[in-house]
Amino acid sequence: MLRYAGRRLFSLAVSLWVASVVIFLALEVVPGDPAAYMLGLNAQQDTLNALREELGLNGSVYERYLSWIGGMLRGDFGTSYTYRTPVAGMIADRLWVSLPLALYALALSTLIAFPAGIWAARKRGSAVDLVIMGGTQLGVAIPNFWFAMLMVLVFAINLRWFSAGGFPGWEEGAGPALKALTLPAIALALPQASILARVMRSALLDTLGEDYIRTARAKGLSRGQALRRHALRNALIPVLTIIGLQFSFLLAGAIIIENVFYLPGLGRLVFQAISARDLIVVESVVMLLVFAVIMVNFAVDMAYAWVDPRLRGRR
Which residues cross the membrane (predicted)? Predict the structure, then answer.
């Protein structure tokens, strides 16, 4: 297990290094002069020189990269050119919205998908299976931003059960904060639950066709007992993969939903930074999101080892 974890940690470190190089080159080298890009075509030369000095662009590419990486390792993400505040503080504030939203949506997705996928596999070919698969097909097809606007119309404007947008902050209490995140979480969870339910059903059906399942059935276990005792755990590997990918998407890809509900999250911060050409914020947030995705993949790999004992014994 330690060897397996060590190899995964080494792969994680290499992936982070490659990602940092790609992000740095894409945002600071490929556009040419970042200062000219941020200020626009009509910027005065003295203004450009002042911004280059402020951003440390007068050094070589190698020196700038080491300075950027060293600052991030110390927790110094630089200062936003647009907001004139430390980027680390901006990210910390927004993360307390995006991370709970992603976890909330993932929890809803899992709670919906697991029973639906298991029940569909257990009732394969029946009316129940057809209804569940039809519902998941509809969930995949419906754009989540359209579903979000529909929920705002129904539950916020007509029924007035929820607010149409905004976030009160966690200092107002967990209840109001979670209530503000409920509609966005449902909008994000719907397509993810549909995908996860279909993967769960397919993985279970594949597992139920294995020889050891037939042996268990021959020993007297019912289909439901064989599914719960033997098939379910062995079908979790592809499901864990999808859950890891979904969490990464929910954390990094909720830009549209955060804008629909006016949530001050990381997605909206990136959108605003791109609109304002604030490369410092974009660079830092993208690197942080890449780090989060790689860490989630590492956690999924560790979950593989827990589910499949064969991985723990590999040399």
Answer: 95-118, 130-157, 177-197, 235-257, 285-307
Task: State the Cα angle at 310 between 231 and 306, rounded to 5°.
Answer: 70
pTM: 0.80
Give 200-258 pLDDT, tens digit per residue: 888 888 887 777 777 877 777 776 677 777 777 777 777 877 888 788 778 766 778 88
- Please enumerate in sequence order all residues whose Cβ is within 8 A of that of 201, keeping only pairs 6 or more positions apart, or say none: 117, 118, 120, 121, 129, 132, 133
Q: Which residue has the tokens 């430390």?
A: 86
86 bridge partner residues: 79
How is domain 87-276+292-308 classified at the CATH fold level?
MetI-like fold (1.10.3720)
Q: Using the structure block, give the residue that is written with the tokens 């000095």.
A: 53
**How would you classify residue 282: left for phi > 0, otherwise alpha for psi between -120 and 50, otherwise beta?**
alpha
Tokens coding 84: 């004139």
* H or E stretch at 117: helix 87-122
Give the domain ranges of the chain: 87-276+292-308
Burial letters 238-250, b for 16+ CB under 10 A, else e: ebbbbbbbbbbbb
| Alpha-carbon gap, residue 181 to 97, rounded angstroms | 9
Rounded Cα distance, 67 and 266, in Å: 24
Taking alpha carbons only, the member of 138, 247, 133 closest to residue 188 is: 247
